[in-house]
Design a protein that fits this description.
This protein has 11 helices and 7 strands. The protein is an alpha/beta fold. A 7-stranded mixed beta sheet has the order 3-2-1-4-5-7-6, sandwiched between helices. Helix 4 (about 65-75) links the parallel strand 2 and strand 3. The structure holds S-adenosylmethionine (SAM). S-adenosylmethionine binds near residues 4, 39, 63 and 102. The site of S-adenosylmethionine (SAM) has 21 residues, from helix 2 and helix 3.
Length: about 260
Amino acid sequence: MANWSAGQYLKFEDERTRPPRDLLAQVPLQQPRLAVDLGCGPGNSTALLVERYPQAEIVGLDSSADMLEKARERVPQCKFIAADIATWTPLPRTDLVFANAALHWIPDHPLMMRRLVEALPAGGVLAVQMPDNTREPALVLQREVAASGPWANDPQIKAAARADLPSPETYYDLLRPVCAQLDIWHTVYHHVMPTPQAIVEWFKGSSLQPFLSPLDAAAREEFLAAYTEKIVGSYRPRVDGKVLLRFPRLFIVAVR
Ligand SMILES: C[S@@+](CC[C@H](N)C(=O)[O-])C[C@H]1O[C@@H](n2cnc3c(N)ncnc32)[C@H](O)[C@@H]1O
């Protein structure tokens, strides 16, 4: 498991909190009894749940101590638990399982999503957003750097790249038999970044972590320098000197 840092993740808080807002806007629940924020991170998505459902019991779950500490400071009225999403099961009164930018890290997550939906009460909702950006230059270049440096044969580096997400049809066929309603869509964001280097900073808070965590400090610097050079070559300045980070994301709202 990568070493998640709340500080690094929150450098782009506004941009990172827009997808969970867009996801929550499509959740067809008025008054959930218990809502659980899986992979709550520093509590940015949990705070959205509190804002929309002030009467609900809201619980955040994460495996990172650093993230949980920030989340507890930020949303002290909620309960936060350290646990592994992969082995977690909802309590019977759980009306909403919200998982923004978290499930794509879990092996076999499509089957896990089906198990989660099956465990919900009738009308309960599983709402999921996952980055669908493995074919974007920023992630392709991570794999290129990983395959070409002195670390190329390190088994942890070889295993660091995330697999492509399955197709919407795959999720539909798996989830539809256990759902009353199923809504699947993509949104492509074009985040305005001040410089290409900011794109490197962005991914240091997410998909670069599995590549950087196994390396010592010197190798980490070398990896980042090689990656930055490639990013500068791929993300060209726009009319105002800024660069656009194209970021496709997959959304799924499944109602039991
Ligand atoms: C990209 S952050 C998402 C944070 C927040 N939900 C948001 O909307 O911005 C992903 C979070 O999932 C957590 N995570 C990843 N794998 C996990 C697992 N197996 N069990 C629990 N938490 C996990 C990480 O620690 C991290 O805080």
